[in-house]
Amino acid sequence: RLTQSSLLGGRVEVDLAGQLAQRFSQQVQVESDVHAMALGERRFGIGAGESSFVVINMGSGSGIAYHDSSLMRGATGGAGLVSQERFYVAEIDEWLIMDNLLSGRGVTLLYQRLTGQTRAAVDLHSLAATDPAARKVFQLIGLYLGQFIVKLARILNPQCFVLCGSVARASPLFIDITRDIVRSEIEPACQPTAILPSELEAAACLGLL
């Protein structure tokens, strides 16, 4: 049963597995996008060489998945549902949920708050070379991602963090900021060995194979 969807606006109640099973007369298991990403990374990506890792989805919405020999789904499949976690973003004096910060819509929203102008996240990636406000947006992404990873590393202590989703493709604009924060703030016992962008084109699709 689908109970949460960033694309559908938050909380929903859809028996997706039941509808698909009835339509195609097949047994169906529904995975969240970020859980599917973790399965894809484990089989075909960076996670294949790691004993444990956390996937952070930074796409149309946000989420995490922890894989340590097996995928941690939680009691009802909701493990990693962090889209509604709130951050205080001092630079714009506003509280934002994770879905509206570490995501494509977050890139657009931060730029709008800083400049009063609305631009698509993909355009801001290109503009960052010449537009100081666009660069600032990705610096903020790096800052708050770093702070988030610090918390996750202390709780889950994975070997590696893998960044997935559309915003991860812009990681050269912010990943050094993220790594510096994690390196300086995390205790040695919790330090990850790496924070890397995914090398897969469609990790979630590969995870469902």
UniProtKB/TrEMBL annotation:
SUPFAM superfamilies hit by this protein: Actin-like ATPase domain
Protein name: Transcriptional regulator
Source taxon at top rank: Bacteria
Record-stated family: Belongs to the ROK (NagC/XylR) family.
InterPro entries cross-referenced by the UniProt entry: ATPase_NBD, ROK
Taxonomic placement: Bacteria, Pseudomonadati, Pseudomonadota, Alphaproteobacteria, Rhodobacterales
